[in-house]
Structures are given as C-alpha cells and as structure tokens.
Automatic annotation (TrEMBL):
<feature type="transmembrane region" description="Helical">
    <location>
        <begin position="189"/>
        <end position="209"/>
    </location>
</feature>
<feature type="transmembrane region" description="Helical">
    <location>
        <begin position="46"/>
        <end position="67"/>
    </location>
</feature>
<keyword id="KW-0813">Transport</keyword>
<feature type="transmembrane region" description="Helical">
    <location>
        <begin position="316"/>
        <end position="337"/>
    </location>
</feature>
<feature type="transmembrane region" description="Helical">
    <location>
        <begin position="102"/>
        <end position="119"/>
    </location>
</feature>
<protein>
    <submittedName>
        <fullName>Iron ABC transporter permease</fullName>
    </submittedName>
</protein>
<dbReference type="GO" id="GO:0022857">
    <property type="term" value="F:transmembrane transporter activity"/>
</dbReference>
<keyword id="KW-1003">Cell membrane</keyword>
<keyword id="KW-0812">Transmembrane</keyword>
<dbReference type="Pfam" id="PF01032">
    <property type="entry name" value="FecCD"/>
</dbReference>
<comment type="similarity">
    <text>Belongs to the binding-protein-dependent transport system permease family. FecCD subfamily.</text>
</comment>
<feature type="region of interest" description="Disordered">
    <location>
        <begin position="1"/>
        <end position="40"/>
    </location>
</feature>
<dbReference type="GO" id="GO:0033214">
    <property type="term" value="P:siderophore-iron import into cell"/>
</dbReference>
<feature type="transmembrane region" description="Helical">
    <location>
        <begin position="158"/>
        <end position="177"/>
    </location>
</feature>
<dbReference type="InterPro" id="IPR037294">
    <property type="entry name" value="ABC_BtuC-like"/>
</dbReference>
<feature type="transmembrane region" description="Helical">
    <location>
        <begin position="237"/>
        <end position="256"/>
    </location>
</feature>
<dbReference type="InterPro" id="IPR000522">
    <property type="entry name" value="ABC_transptr_permease_BtuC"/>
</dbReference>
Amino acid sequence: MLTSLPKGASSGAPEVTPLAPRPTVAAPGGDPSHPSSATRRPRRRLILGLLVAAVLLLLAVAASFIVGTRDIALGTVLDAVFAPDRSVTDHTVVLDLRVPRTVVGLLAGLALGLAGALMQGVTRNPLADPGLLGVNAGASLFVVAGIAWFGVTSALGYVWFAFIGAAVATTVVYLIGSLGREGATPVKLALAGTALTAALTSLITIVLLTDGEAFDRYRFWAAGSLVARGLDSTLPLVPFIVAGTLLAVAAARMLNALALGDDLARGLGQNLVTARIVCAVAVVLLCGSATAMAGPIVFVGLAVPHLARWFTGPDYRWILAYSALLGPALLIFADVLGRILARPGEIEAGLVVAFLGAPVLIALVRRVKLVGL
C-alpha cells in the first residue's frame, strides 16, 4: 500500500517507501484458533480426507477380523460378529482372539496418535513423540517396578503404574526444560526428554537383570503386541482414553495459539501455563493407557501427526481428528501384516509399525520441508 502525499504538500517532500502487507497470523477478531488464511485447506477437501481415513480404518478392522493363522471364511467371520455361536470353533477364534486384539489396536492407536500430535504441538518440535520426551520410558520403568516388586500381571494393574511413571517423567522433563531465562523452549524440552529416556532405560535394565522372572514377563510386553490382551482387562481403561481424548479436543485451539509463538500467544490472551497443563494431563492419560494395554509402542505418535499434517496443514483441530483415525489404522494394519509375514507364527505389531512408519516419515520429510510447528 502506497502512502499518498497530503493535499497541497510540497513536491520537495521526502519520498515515501511502499509498505509490504503484513502476513495474516490469526482470523479477524484475533481468534488464535484459526491458522493463517494462506495456509488453510478447503473445508470440502478436509472432510473428504477425513472420510478416506475413516474408510482406511474400517478396512483395517475388517482385515484384522479376517486375517490370521487360521483361515476363516468371510461369511463365518460375519456370523461370528453378528450372530455368534460359541459351539462353533471358528466363532470362538474370532470372538476370543481377533476381536480383543482389534479393540486394543483401536484404543492404543487412537491414544498414541493423539498423544503424538499434542506433544508436537505443545513443544513445537517436529520430532516430539511419547518416546522422545521420556513419557514411554517413565511409564515403562514404573510398570517394570510393578512386575518385579508387586507381581502385577494384567493391563488394569499396569495402568496405574504407567500413569504414575508417565506423570513423573512429564513433570521432570518440563521442570528441567523450564530452567533458565527463556523457560520451556522446544529444544530444551527435547534435550531433557532424551537425557531422561537414557537414564530411565538404564534403570529398567538394572531392574530386569536382577529379576529373571520379571524379565520374562517384561520382554513380551515391551515388544509392543496386541496379542493376549483380553477385553476384561482392556475395557476398564476406556474411560481414561475418553478423558484424554476430550482434553485433546479442548486443547486444539490452544495448540493453534501456541503455534504462533509464546509472545504472540500471550498477546492474543492465551494462558500458556493452562494450555501446557491441559496437554500434559491428556498426554499422561493417553500414553499411560496405551502403554498399559499394548506396551511401549513407538513411532505411531511420531509418524501419524506428520501424515495428518500433510493433508490438513497447521490447523490442530483437523490434525487431531485425522490422527485419531490414522493412528489406529496404522497400528492395526501393522498387526495384520505381522500375522501374514511370519505365518504360522506372528511378528509383534510394535516391531512392524517401526518398519512401516520409517519409510512413511522419510517420504514426508523429502516431499514437505518440516518447519517449526
């Protein structure tokens, strides 16, 4: 925009330099929950992508019901789901083995996908996930303590130790990252999380080396598997995941504000302490539940938010919605692939998802330049 000379001004007045338009950082009215208009995606495209993600999740669930070490016809699988008969062996296999592991995959994938998106948003670090910031390590250490010292063997028993460990790790990382004049910056949080993970992993190893029985139980849980997780010990964890999901939804607008930077977020009226506390509680609930159910599965929380961001742009309201669908789809597809690759045996989903997630993340990095979040 050019600034015109006042009427009647002398022709000898100094020349005025044109001013470049300022970029839009928030929607009219100062609402920090709206990203820049230059980076918005058409709403129709976002809804269509969400429907595609939902279809992928349905296909993953169907494949999980159908594929296994025992060949069962599709019609028999449908009968087992909608008209079960316990006297039929194939129905029992579907109901007692495939349905529970699919439910675990849905819940754990949802929790890990949302937790990864929250952590990347609150730290503005594209490499943040529950594994990097020490949350998984904290949960794992306390679960190991429960196994070795208290004889805990069920997911419902693991969850309380996982919650405490995740909360302790999150608090320690935040306190360490907050030291100094600049407060909790993304880089300091990442460094604190990496250091804490290394320390906690060493403690886990020490405990396991001194207790052979605990090591035998831990090694199957730590691989990240959906097998042998019954519904009786899984369904009681649903309220925790629901609570974490609701907090994640409530945090979406806060994350959009935090993405603008701390100073601008404060200027727009955002309470940074409240935003980080809400996100931290949600991450503890989600990661603790997922870790208790399926073990310390890595890479879902790292890769899924980037895959979602590829379609949605920077708006966390859509990133969280996509992550809630893509997380369980990725985990269940990994579990199904593990059944196919090692028939008649199986490969744990936690191992397969790492091989699936790494190429996806590399492709995203090569296609899209990752910037500060």
